[in-house]
Amino acid sequence: ISYLKVLKVYPEPQPVYSHPSLPDKVREAFEDLQRMLKQKFKPYFIVGGCRAVLEAAIAELGGEGERLIDKINDILTKGIITKPLADWAHQIRVEGNVALHELLHTEITPEEAEELVEFVKLFLVYTFELPARIQERRKLTHL
Asked: Measured between alpha carbons, how far apart are the two ends of the chain, in Å?
């Protein structure tokens, strides 16, 4: 009996974005979301997932309020995020709501879903990764 040995896979799989500064719940959900995108899940699932990851991240950042709109505005008011990040977060919130509530009637393209995943990634980079990297840098330079 001979066994096959895989020497190389083409195209080479691209790793999903992840960073140790991300809270576990957010990291795991975003990794899954990126895999769903690569596996070409329906765009409305991807967009709904973007909203869910965003809401989990905002909760980790201390966003308070009953609704996601209130939580986004809260972390904006507290200076945790900038106005452009808040605007994008509201866009994800709105598109995620439409995708989840109108499911099959939503006309979201795979490209739009991919763009929203990229925004969520940038949101996570700016709110978790960059502050962690700055803090680490300050430790190294003793500032």
From this structure: 63
Helices (H) and strands (E) in the chain, counts: 6, 0
Amino acid at the residue 16: V
Residue 19 identity: H
CB 52 within 8 A of CB 89: no
pLDDT of the residue at 55: 97
Among residues 121, 129, 117, 126, the alpha carbon closest in space to that of 19 is found at 129
C-alpha pair distances (Å), 95 with each of 79, 112, 131, 142: 24, 10, 28, 43
9-46 pLDDT, tens digit per residue, is 777 778 999 999 999 999 999 999 999 999 999 998 99
